Amino acid sequence: xxxxxxxxxxxxxxxxxxxxxxxxxxxxxxxxSMDGMLPMSFGLFGLLNLYCAFLxxxxxxxxxxxxxxxxxxxxxxxxFYYLVSHLAAASLLLSIQCLVFIIAxxxxxxxxxxxYFVLFLLYCSYSVMGLSFALAWNTMFRSYNTSxxxxxxxxxxxxxxxxxxxPLSLLPMTVQQSVRVLPTYWLAHGLAALGASSPSSLLLxxxxxxxxxxxxxxxxxxxxx
Amino acid sequence: xxxxxxxxxxxxxxxxxxxxxxCSFLLLFTELAPLHLLVFLLVVFSHLLRWRFAIxxxxxxxxxxxxxxxxxxxxxxxxxxxxxVYYFAVNAKLxxxxxxxxYCALVIEFxxxxxxxxxxxxxxxxxxxxxxxxxxxxxxDEQRQKAFQLDQQxxxxxxxxxxxxxxxxxxxxxxIARILHDSLGHELTGAHLTxxxxxxxxxxxxxxxxxxxxxxVEQRLMAALDQLKLAVRQLQPEPxxxxxxxxxxxxDFSYPVGFSIQGDLSFLETxxxxxxxxxxKEALTNIAKHANPSEVTASIDINxxxxxxxxxxxxxxxxxxxxxxxxxxxxxxxxxxxGGSMAIIKGQTFKLIVTLPCGVKEWE
Lengths: 225, 364
What we know:
The complex is a heterodimer of chains A (about 220) and B (about 375). Chain A has about 220 residues and is mainly α. Chain A has one domain. In chain A, about 75% of the residues lie in helices and about 0% in strands. In chain A, helix 3 (about 40-55) packs antiparallel against helix 6 and helix 7 packs antiparallel against helix 10 (about 185-195). Chain B is of the alpha+beta class. Helices cover about 70% and strands about 10% of the residues of chain B. Chain B has ten helices and five strands, in the order H-H-H-H-H-H-H-H-E-H-E-E-H-E-E. In chain B, strand 2 (about 295-300) and strand 3 (about 305-315) form a beta hairpin. At the A-B interface, helix 11 of A face helix 2 of B.
């Protein structure tokens, strides 16, 4: 069994995994939206996706805590192969989650609301960013539970202030400018650009999300035995 | 001082980079347009890439060149070039650092120009700190290596010394056995046979002849006793012999030597006497090889605790060859192994002073 298949099974074995991937995205569709704006579920899906990404990073974090990485270091498997297999497995599950949400949205809100293919690209980029962010975040802690406890607070605040939980326009101007440094802001920015049909802003959001992904991957991929 | 307690200059350089990144972010924050943020993130990515992977420093020129091009379109981004100035300064690419600094000086206005200047200054400080640290580590490693080599040589010398003592002991045993066999053996065998003959005569009731045999036994035993005394005298060193050997060395030397020997050489232990002999020989050989003296004086003074050898010549040579250096070095090691010391005074003349203890501590 390859590491990819093993990682896939490990992720699916988690209690909430299937619920978060297949059921919760559908529940989000029933949250009421504000008039003249994109549905609230589009933003809230960012919050769900971020937590799901954190859940998917659990096998990597636990491998480090249980010293499995030490055994892997002594085996002929390279750290790069191990990491790529795990990230690919997690990314696949997150992409499935995005696809489920996109298909359900298209059926629920109608196919003409937005360009769903671009929305799928945006969510996928955000998913990978969330996964790499979780990877970098976990490297700061020895215990996954501590890491998750702190992340649940920080993640919620990040999503709240960056316009995923409620519209960014309701926040003061200074805060709106400051939150640009948060990676979650760029999903909200991308969604706004998609709603306003602004391809340049959307492209910028995607590029910034991928740049954040690169930065977090560089921080989180360092082998810590 | 243990190395892990010292803050590494590499860690310090990284910390400083984080601080400078934050500073540049704050300086850019007033006009933090999305494009500015993207470029800032790319700069962070570029530095992180160098942190994670060992990419040649010259490749950073490509990143900085791209930033220079961007700064032509958005001048405020030139501020981020300060981070590359810092990077090149820390990594000893001073030419690139100064070229970028020059560009910054042309593009950035005065109050903000202080930022690249500060970056360059910190970069240079960390670079020189790292250089000094490397030099110190290298020197410490060399010292440790020298100490290790000296220790090895000392161990080897001690081993040689121990083996020499064992060989000498064996030779002395053989010498004693030969003397006993040659001198005592003959007389004692004769006495033994005569006693057996006397016993036989007594059994045959030839009292007179037995009495004669008894007298012969007495004579042979007396002779054996004399031989034993002679053998003991032979085993004891002849005091004058050592004096003669040393004097012979001075007299046979190619230059005339004014020498004096004060004290009793037999008072010295054998090993000390041997080292003294070797030292005198080596000192004279060195003079013959590397000096052209008009006058050579030597003195050996022996008291109850120390023996002091001083040799002086006025034919001091300007150039000292490696061979001469090795000779003196080995001489010093031999002397130090016995607990002695050696000093060289160079002035108008070349003076060598060697001091040795009369007795040697037993090495384990």
